[in-house]
Design goal:
Layout lengths: L9 H14 L4 H14 L11 E10 L3 H13 L4 E9 L3 E10 L1 H12 L4 E10 L29
Antiparallel strand pairs: 1-3, 1-4, 2-3
């Protein structure tokens, strides 16, 4: 096996070592290999190829790290074809959360998530991907309305 040198913050290394001990791994190399396989395999799911997808991407970063917020704004504009919605919120006194709702294909969404993950100084990047073509033709393009156009009716959860 090839030996690879990787730089990482001491805190992350300590967390990896603790995780390794708590979960019965033989060492940090095994944890890193498994994490790498999982990361590389996330978007290789053949069930997602050639399908209409929706993704939610959540990014948490320190409020004082303005470069992250600027990068998120640039990514939103670079990928405006798939960014259906974007939400910014303050979390506590020193953190910000950026939430993106994406609509598009696997390659486009994968590229976007990869760029977000590659952004320096993010604290966490979480996402989920859901095929929406199974909800019917035009699921992404249809207006989402409840009740009558005049607003006289309200759909209940049972009717919806």
């Amino acid at each position: 096996m090839t030996v690879v040198s990787v730089s990482m913050p001491e805190e992350l290394l300590e967390r990896i070592d603790q995780f390794s001990d708590e979960h019965g791994y033989t060492g940090r190399s095994e944890v890193i290999r498994e994490a790498s396989r999982n990361l590389l395999g996330e978007f290789e799911d053949a069930k997602l190829e050639d399908r209409a997808l929706m993704a939610v991407v959540t990014v948490l970063f320190n409020y004082e790290t303005t470069s992250v917020e600027e990068r998120m704004m640039r990514l939103r504009h670079e990928h405006e074809g798939i960014v259906a919605s974007n939400f910014h919120s303050h979390v506590g006194s020193q953190y910000c959360m950026e939430l993106f709702v994406l609509e598009g294909g696997l390659e486009e969404i994968s590229t976007f998530v990869g760029k977000v993950r590659a952004t320096k100084d993010t604290l966490t990047v979480d996402y989920s991907v859901t095929p929406v073509d199974e909800f019917g033709a035009g699921a992404l393009g249809e207006a989402h309305a409840h009740g009558s156009p005049g607003g006289d009716e309200t759909a209940t959860p049972e009717e919806d």
